[in-house]
Amino acid sequence: WQSDELIFFVNGKKIIEKHAEPEELLLSYLRKGLCLTGVKKGCGIGGCGACTVMISTYDPVSKKILHYPANSCLLPICSLHGAAVTTVEGVGSTKTRIHPIQERLAKCHGSQCGFCTPGMVMSMYALLRNHPEPSMEQITAALDGNLCRCTGYRPIIDSYKSFAGEPTCCQLRGTRQCCLDQEGVHASSDKGDGMCSNLCNPKEFQPMDPSQEFIFPPELMRM
Ligand code: FES
Ligand code: FES
Known about the structure:
By secondary structure, the protein is of the alpha+beta class. The protein has helices at residues 26-33, 88-91, 100-107, 117-130, 136-142, 154-161, 218-221, and strands spanning 6-10, 13-17, 52-59, 64-71, 84-86. It has 7 helices and 5 strands; from the N terminus they run ββαβββαααααα. Helix 3 packs across helix 6 (154-161). It starts with 5 loop residues before the first strand and ends with a helix. The structure holds FE2/S2 (inorganic) cluster (2 copies). One FE2/S2 (inorganic) cluster binds at residues 111-117, 148-151. Residues 4-91 form the 2Fe-2S ferredoxin-type domain.
């Protein structure tokens, strides 16, 4: 490639920018340039998480692929040379396949107006790419940069409780009961993936299948 070319991938598609604008931010590039309007503009200054995408890079020293969530409203596209960007459109859609992260959020009533939802999905997606069976502490930490003005957060956390490696529930850890709704606990399997409410049934959830996710573009590992 030529040294003045900016090369990165978005949802598995290679992008080559020969005249990248130094001040262009990823959020406007995705929404206006690529028509990927799943990524939302809330505050525009890094405070709400509505614009979250996942950035993946290859570290040639450790020979590991690193995934992290990022506020696209703060990220100049010129910082993305050699990176792979995943937006909510790359995670799943009603046109192709709804991802379990999206399905569980919807079925557990974790989305109302839906404006924060793509950012919530992307923060959770980045967490699961790094930690397929996260703890509840990791789940709540992963979502702490995402604001929601509608749900009060409880249904969102309940949705994603089902991805936790260990059954955990409020202060009653290990009892498979919840202090909020002891009548409504679903003991859905022997593994103990108990949920806090009657609003959704974990037996209906699609299983998480990491083999269906985008792989990191091999070309970027050679750059
Ligand atoms: Fe609010 Fe980017 S739009 S953090
Ligand atoms: Fe409306 Fe979160 S569902 S902002």
